[in-house]
Amino acid sequence: MLLCAVSVEAQPNKARVARPQKSAPPAKPSAASAPAASESSKPDATKPDTPAADNAPATSGNASVTSGDDLGAPPPKQTNETQGPRKSPLTPEPNEFPQGAPKPPPPAYDQLLSDIAALRSRVAAVTTTLFSSKLRVLVSVDGDDARIASLRVTLDDGVVYAAPENFGGGEPLVVYEHAVAPGHHMLGIEIERYDARNREYRTYQSSKFSVIVPESKHLESSFRIKDASDMAGDFPKGHDGEYDLRVRLRARVVD
After folding, report:
1. Fewer CB in a 10 Å sphere around the end CB: N or C, the chain?
2. Which pTM value belongs to this model?
3. How far apart are CA 214 and CA 182, in angstroms?
4. Cβ neighbour number for residue 9 with a 10 Å cutoff
5. Cα separation of 86 and 242, whole Å?
6. Which of the pair, 197 or 66, is modelled with greater confidence?
């Protein structure tokens, strides 16, 4: 072992010379690819020569479109001439609502009024047949200077008579006579009066009276209205006047 080590150290060091590396020869084209390259390089005689500008990407408006765009070209913008005025969304279309049948003519009001009058007559006849008790109401007005502006007679809070203009007279006037149910009823009278000497002096009066109509009897109720007021004659002269109003009701069985 020692002898080998000495012999190695005794040898002189030889410089190592770097050899230049040889470059790889160029790859030869394969037989499969060579015809394809030669065919692609040949010009096509059937296609005309086009300028280089034809190969530029197609444009529409201000937006460019590439062949790889999946959405395609945007729709062309409409001008004001083709679009027209913008309609409100609440404006219905011409054929939006169905065309219905023509409306029926209005009812004949004269015929309706005659039917109502006939029904009232039938109701009155039925009431007379059902109830044998009757009620008669009379009204008389007394007063030299008193004038009636309005007068209404009520039966159970329903108006059964309304006086016309210039109503009055000393003699009793029958204003209501009809069959009613026997028993308790409420008769009322509402009056508005004015003085013929001065219309500014007016009176308003409303009175109600309870009456009882016997079974199968005829009850006569008579209103007597008396106005002896001197307010319009005395107050303008001596500043002293008086209203004197009276409403009386007399009820009696006549048969």
Report:
1. N
2. 0.50
3. 6
4. 6
5. 79
6. 197
